[in-house]
Design goal:
The protein has 527 residues and is an alpha/beta fold. The protein contains 13 helices and 17 strands. Strands 1, 2, 6, 7, 8, 9 and 16 form a 7-stranded mixed β-sheet that branches. The chain has a 4-stranded antiparallel β-sheet with strand order 11-14-13-12, covered by helices on one side. Strand 8 and strand 9 (190-200) form a beta hairpin. Bound molecules: flavin-adenine dinucleotide and succinic acid (SIN).
């Protein structure tokens, strides 16, 4: 079946919904989302969204904190633009109905602090900010007459000249996007969606690793699609591990213990109950994430423990129960009373700093294709994202991309080509009934990445990962080429593509910077 709209959005998290609400004033919008519309990293965001709202803080300080966390390789212009635009985007979220907590005194926003921030500047809704943002945006999108949300529609590939029979390489000038092919997960039919402008807002790729805080939908689909379409990707070696996920091995994804808890006074401790961060950084438990995660990793290796502790008892019972109700209830459900017990924690893959390279308007290297949110790479994060700058980046870039996309859609684009775009050809494919081929390969991939391409890397580990990945890649391509497509198979293929890109970029990065840390580059001077 063929569908034609003005604006096609893939993803219904903060980035996709924010963009959709803006462009919907100028044309018909279709949002494709592979699961339930509310499912994605956005709804699990705990800490909040960073912005300078009052004179007690300054843009300069937030800019400086972002640059420092990014370890000197952020794009300064992008950082300045994003941070100066933040208050406008926050006011817009409030207009959409997001209920940020107020401080109970002068009706000002209650602000939290997290690692790497020199000030209290995190707007939040208790400890479940993302759920509140997703609720408000989704309700607004569902009310809008120009927006159609289609759930359980899995975007497989973006449509380019390649599908018109032309040879497309990464050197081909003017690669264009006409829309996407998407699998209807209920009927197994593959539909053709054509649009004047397409936005990828497909989120992260946490499931490349065994232990991740990200939901199961985070399989790097947008990045993999752009890779196959020969678009430009960047910075994928900078995989961010959150220092404090709850140690509860059977649980997937790993439950997050927000950094805001450290901002409120919780401290990291070893199994003897001793603080250890003084050995690593003067900012102690509130150092930027890359430093804290590496310190925990090192302490775990030294002690042979699978976890360490976060001690939140000093925060006080009332503040813990009222300020962190989700974490309090979660821990209690597995027998940990955080007002009395230390919380067992370990690092988990949390966020991908790199992705689809976009300019300041969210435009990718492929014409008529935009990207926003975690699947994109804007230059804001450099080598390591500052806490709570991700939701911010998503709303700022969704806004910028919308402005540009509205202007672009007003110029009729590729109308004469539409008739030539073929539908998906699934002839000769057989239904692969051996799910084990997919599930086993996925766990192998995740183990390889966790063990060889994790917080601490080396040339040999990266080489091993690459060799093992090659085998998995060949087997999966073979399966893909003869199988009727299913969501798990497509996701596995995308995860493999993302793993390949992470390893390739990690091998190319010959200095330890931000989240990329290799034992073989330890004694090298950083310029
Ligand atoms: P997501 O919200 O992940 O949405 C992706 C969407 O794309 C989903 O709707 C999914 O179904 C859809 N999709 C993906 N692939 C396909 C496909 N092939 N076809 C169709 N649809 C597809 N950041 C902060 O700034 N502050 C925080 O406090 C914070 N806390 C976090 C806590 C947790 C536990 C996690 C995991 C992340 C946190 N982050 C936080 C990071 C932040 O939440 C994410 O980076 C951000 O929400 C990503 O938004 P997004 O719109 O890009 O993607
Ligand atoms: C957290 O609440 O610790 C997560 C914040 C983030 O990922 O930005």
């Amino acid at each position: 079946m063929r569908h034609e709209v003005d604006f096609l959005v893939v993803g219904s998290g903060i980035a996709g919904l924010s963009f959709a609400l803006k462009v919907a004033e100028h044309g018909r919008v279709c949002i494709l989302t592979k699961g339930d519309a509310a499912e994605g990293s956005t709804r699990y965001a705990q800490g909040g969204i960073a912005a300078v709202m009052y004179d007690s803080d300054s843009f300069e300080q937030h800019i400086e904190d972002t640059l420092v966390a990014g370890d000197g390789i952020c794009d300064r212009e992008v950082v300045e633009m994003t941070i100066r635009e933040a208050p406008d985007r926050i006011r817009e979220l409030v207009r959409y109905g997001v209920d940020f907590d107020l401080d109970g005194k002068g009706g000002r926003f209650d602000l939290h602090r997290e690692g790497g921030h020199s000030e209290f500047r995190i707007l939040h809704h208790k400890d479940n900010t993302g759920e509140e943002i997703e609720r408000a945006l989704l309700e607004a999108a569902r009310r809008h007459p120009n927006i159609t949300i289609k759930e359980r529609q899995f975007a497989i590939d973006i449509i380019t000249q390649h599908h018109l029979g032309q040879r497309v390489t990464k050197h081909t000038p003017g690669i264009e996007c006409y829309g996407v092919y998407a699998l209807d997960c209920d009927t197994n039919r593959i539909d053709t969606y054509l649009a004047k402008v397409t936005l990828l807002a497909t989120g992260g790729m946490g499931n490349v690793y065994t232990t991740t805080t990200t939901p199961i939908i985070s399989t790097g689909d947008g990045v993999a699609m752009v890779h196959r379409a020969r678009g430009v990707l960047s910075d994928l070696e900078f995989t961010q591990f959150h220092p404090t996920s709850l140690y509860n091995p059977a649980e997937k994804p790993a439950f997050l213990i927000t950094e805001a808890m450290r901002g409120a006074g919780a401290v990291l401790k070893d199994r003897e109950g001793r603080e250890f961060m003084q050995k690593y950084d003067p900012r102690l438990s509130l150092a930027p994430r890359d430093i804290v995660a590496r310190a925990i990793d090192n302490e775990m290796k030294l002690s042979g423990m699978d976890y360490l502790y976060l001690d939140a008892r000093g925060i006080g019972k009332k503040h813990l129960i009222e300020g962190f109700p989700t974490i309090y209830a979660k821990c209690l459900s597995i027998g940990i009373d955080i007002t009395r017990d230390m919380i067992p924690i370990r690092p988990a893959m949390h966020y991908q700093c790199g992705g689809i390279k976009v300019d300041r308007h969210g435009e990718s290297s492929i014409r008529h294709l935009y990207a926003a949110g975690e699947c994109s790479c804007t230059g804001l994060h450099g080598g390591n994202r500052l806490a709570s700058n991700s939701l911010l980046e998503a709303v700022v870039y969704a806004h910028n991309a919308a402005q540009s996309a509205i202007a672009e859609a007003a110029r009729a684009v590729h109308g004469n080509l539409r008739g030539q775009i073929p539908d998906w050809n699934a002839e000769g494919m057989v239904l692969n009934e051996e799910m084990i081929l997919i599930t086993q390969t996925k766990s192998e991939l995740q183990e390889i990445m966790w063990n060889y391409v994790g917080i601490v890397r080396s040339d040999l580990r990266l080489q091993r990962a690459f060799d093992r990945l090659n085998l998995i890649f060949r087997e999966t391509e073979d399966l893909y080429n003869r199988s009727v497509l299913t969501e798990p198979l497509c996701e596995l293929r995308n995860l493999i593509a993302c793993a390949y890109l992470i390893i390739k970029m990690a091998r190319a990065r010959r200095e330890n910077v931000g989240l990329h840390y290799s034992l073989d580059l330890l004694n090298q001077d950083k310029d």
